[in-house]
Amino acid sequence: MKIEEIQQLEKEEHELSQRLDKIRTALYLARVESALKSFSLESGKTILKDRRGREWRFAGINSIWHGSGKPWVNANKKLKGGGFGPGKFNLYSDWEVVT
User: Fold this and answer.
1) CA-CA distance, 71 to 94, in Å (whole number)?
2) Number of domain units in the chain
3) What's the pLDDT tens digit per position in 46-92?
4) Which residues contact 90 (CB under 8 A, 6 or more apart)?
């Protein structure tokens, strides 16, 4: 195989890789949008409850969520004073919507 052929194949591989990255990003964003609607999740407003009954405020969908099933969420922990802390914790898919 000639050097030019190898270079052409490398160029094609790079272009396909970039296209695949764009498709994966678009697919992930579509899954996130669908999950937000399906589970009525709104950042900073939706209150969640974990399996232990603790309350959390929805802060977003975890970026490592694979896109199927119940979304992995990040949430702010409810404080003793009634407000919510600034720290984000991963609840994975172990939560339910309260309000």
Assistant:
1) 9
2) 1
3) 999 999 999 999 999 988 887 778 899 999 999 999 999 999 999 99
4) 62, 72, 73, 74
Q: How far is CA 17 from the centre of its chain?
A: 22
pTM beyond 0.85, yes or no: no
Strand 73-78 relative to strand 84-92, pairing: antiparallel
User: pLDDT tens digit string along 23-35?
Assistant: 999 998 998 999 9
Q: How many residues does the chain have?
A: 99
Handedness of CA 83, 88, 89, 91 (dihedral sign): positive
Classify residue 7 as left (phi > 0), alpha (psi -120 to 50) or beta.
alpha
